[in-house]
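Both lines are retained for reference:
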Amino acid sequence: MTKQKISEGDYILLYLNQRKTYMVKVETGKTFHTHKGFIKFDDLIGKEYGSAVQSSLGIEFVVLKPLLRDFIMKSARQTQITYPKDIALIVMFSGIGPGSRVVEAGTGTGALTTALAYYVKPEGKVYSYEIREEFSKTAEKNLKRAGLIDFVELKNKDVTAGIDENDADAVILDLATPWLVIPHAYNALKPCGTLVSFSPTIDQVVKTVEALRENCFVDIETVECLMRGMQTERGKTRPQTLMTGHTGYITFARKAFRGSDTLAKE
């Protein structure tokens, strides 16, 4: 059963309103300060998640247990992160789950890595390639905070030079030149394994799809996911003025045996 009481060392989400939340670590003897007053962590330990707590100024906060999306959206970052709307499609189309072996490149600061690790645990593993060491170090901190570092092997390597792993269930790419990795991905994947590539520009997509076709991948599909929130209030319900629009294009494909008749038709 999932632990429902707050303990020393837990990460919690202090909810003020939909626009203002704080994810903090509970530490005995320490105090968290906000513009709405401070909260003593000692007053939270032993309380149930979902409890209300008042700050020193009498402002009410609700103590929530962070979700996967909270660890992603509130991660320390040096790069643009992959948004939950895109992560959801990547996970679904890749077909990964508990026990999967996944090759990822590049790590960035670990937003997508965090989600992949969450879905392959407890027996699976994510092998994540990142050429910039400073990004890998930030990703390691974010993965530790989410409690998922044990399911990831961070590799400070150039994935365009090759992939060490083989018999992988999926290869997931988020880098500037994914087409250079496609031949390595084919060799790393198990038969019928999946490849997912996230690219912000259509020129990158075209080169990637061409490389996929040249390297015996089938079932190739590219999509874009747009998400628009709703302002929900009686008599005033309408789409929100601001939305998370274009973030990138997601291309999916599956490995086929060389010489398949299907390849000649596509």
